[in-house]
Amino acid sequence: MRLTFPILTLSRGGAQRMLAELTNRLAIIGHEVIILMPNHGIVEYDMKCKVLYSSFSQLSEDDFPYSDVIISNYYTTVPVAQRASEQGKGLHIRLALCYEPTFLPDNNQSFSSYNIARNLFVLSRWQQEIVRINHGIKGRIVPIGVNPDFYNTHRRNTQGKLVVSAIMRKPEGGFSGHREQDYLLQQLNLVKAHHPEIELYLITPPGEYAVSAALQTLLADDRYHVRTPSNDTELCYHYNESDIFVSSSTYDTGSLPGLEAMRCGAALVTVYSGGNLEYGVHGHNCLMSYRHENRLADDIITLIRDKEQRERIALRGESDSLRFTWEKSVQIFQNEMYEIVSRLG
């Protein structure tokens, strides 16, 4: 089938990673996949499918080639994809990688975008239920996966100090509030005060670090070591440096970094974010708390002090993560897409 994905950016990030994995793998299994981007679109992944650029900073329905299916994602891609569909350029299906109205600006626009496309893919049961309650649409679940480039290299036993790591994203721009990064740093500082012997690693995309004054100030703080992986090999290395990986996000449909860290053998300490219930079970393969419990630092300290529990949780997390693969995600996506096309096409 010929598939067109209007995508604003493919810079490093969880949502963009899923788009890159799906489009690449759909192309590999035989679909003709076209990514349509505005003229300033950034591509930081190795793409195996065709990328077309508009002549303008905003996509127009005239930019769309004729396809069997158009797959929109972020809410600003939905109206233009629908207009292109109404011009006969393909059946419109939305792949919602987040539920934007509750945590991003312009929620009146993002909320109404869910009334445009009746064919919907979501990432988790939590997201599916939110959309169903608010809009009466039951999205079909396409789960997140883990790239085989992420695996346990078993190098932790050779390290001296215990490493606690977390991902930090650029706070400027208003798109990281749900990550609770001020809370994260506060809790990590509490941990460091109780256990000065541990190392705190903050992992951030190099492109964001280069333009963020807030992230750059962290380099001058001797409590932290800043890591800026430029590719998956380096990111895998930093996950494998981590004895404990921490996530403070309170609102994620998938929460991919926690799952990747589990695959690499790190013990996960996380805040409940909705989508991470797809893979995280408190006390079994992670320690998970609600934000209002204010327990993140306590859970980290628990695993610092209890080596047996830390290693048990890490082992179970790695084992449980194995069922999440991009091959499985692509197969589910394709099957659900075929069913929609056969019913409506």
From TrEMBL:
An annotated Gene Ontology molecular function? transferase activity
Q: Is Transferase there in the keyword field?
A: yes
Q: Which SUPFAM superfamilies match?
A: UDP-Glycosyltransferase/glycogen phosphorylase
Q: Which InterPro entries match?
A: Glyco_trans_1 (IPR001296)
Q: Which residues form the Glycosyl transferase family domain?
A: 177-316
Protein's UniProt keywords contain Signal: no
Could you tell me the keywords of this UniProt record?
Transferase
Task: Report the superkingdom from the record.
Answer: Bacteria
- Give the matching PANTHER family: GLYCOSYLTRANSFERASE WBBK-RELATED
User: What is the name of this protein?
Assistant: Glycosyl transferase family 1
Taxonomy-wise, where does this protein's organism fall, top ranks first? Bacteria, Bacillati, Bacillota, Bacilli, Bacillales
